[in-house]
Amino acid sequence: MAEDIQRDPVLVFDGDCGFCTTCVNFAERYLRASLSSGGWDAVPYQFADLAALDARAGGRGLVTVGRAEQEILWVTPSGAVHGGARAAARLLLRSGGPWAYLGAFLTLAPVRPLASAGYRLVARHRHQLPGGTAACALPRRARA
Q1: How many whole angstroms separate alpha carbon 112 and alpha carbon 143?
Q2: Are 90 and 74 contacting, i.e. CB atoms less than 8 angstroms apart?
Q3: What is the secondary structure of 12-51 as a DSSP string?
Q4: Predicted confidence band at 63 (pLDDT cuts at 50, 70, 90)?
Q5: Sheet with 41-44, edge to edge strand ranges
Q6: What is the pLDDT of residue 4?
Q7: CB neighbourhood size of 24 (10 A)
Q8: Which residues of 50-70 are buried (b: 16+ CB within 10 A; e: fewer)?
Q9: How confident is the model at residue 55 (pLDDT cuts 50, 70, 90)?
Q10: Is the pTM of this model over 0.70?
Q11: For strand 81-83 and strand 73-75, is the pairing parallel, antiparallel, or unpaired?
Q12: pLDDT digit string (tens) for 65-83?
């Protein structure tokens, strides 16, 4: 895995959340099937070496437990860190094929604020969505 982390982006997600895990399982099954532009790794933040991923990002505190509890994180081999809707867009772009068009759409300037608002809405209510459980609820400080 350490070798893969060096050459592939890493998607960090909340492994305790059933909704998040269901989404990542979907991505691994369907997005990897269309993979044409390189791989990616998905790892629950509970099992990720967040300190190493943050060090890759320059040790700026961009990869933390607090952030990973609230949003997915996409950490590139070069150290760029994208969270939330931008992370989802990067995943779609990396997956290639028709998914890349959706990812590109999400990165358009007029769409980014809407995508971010939609992501925050879903994240805030993920415990109420299919596959979600009480364990999926964001920490109280993140729900405000």
Answers
A1: 21
A2: yes
A3: EE-TT-HHHHHHHHHIIIIIGGG--S---EEEETTTS-HH
A4: very high
A5: 41-44, 10-13, 73-75, 81-83
A6: 43
A7: 21
A8: beebbebbeeeebbeeebbbb
A9: very high
A10: yes
A11: antiparallel
A12: 999 999 999 999 999 999 9
Helix, strand and coil percent figures for the chain, each rounded to 5: 55, 10, 35
Alpha-carbon span 134 to 115, nearest angstrom:
25
Collect all residues with Cβ–Cβ distance below 8 Å to 56 and sequence separation of at least 6: 75, 77, 79
β-pairing verdict for 10-13 and 81-83: unpaired
Contacts of 61 (CB under 8 A, 6+ apart): 54
What band does 138 get if pLDDT is binned at 50, 70 and 90? low
CA 94 – CA 21 distance, rounded (Å): 19
Average pLDDT over residues 113-136: 87
Q: How far apart are CA 108 and CA 115, in angstroms?
A: 10
Give the single-character DSSP code of 75: E
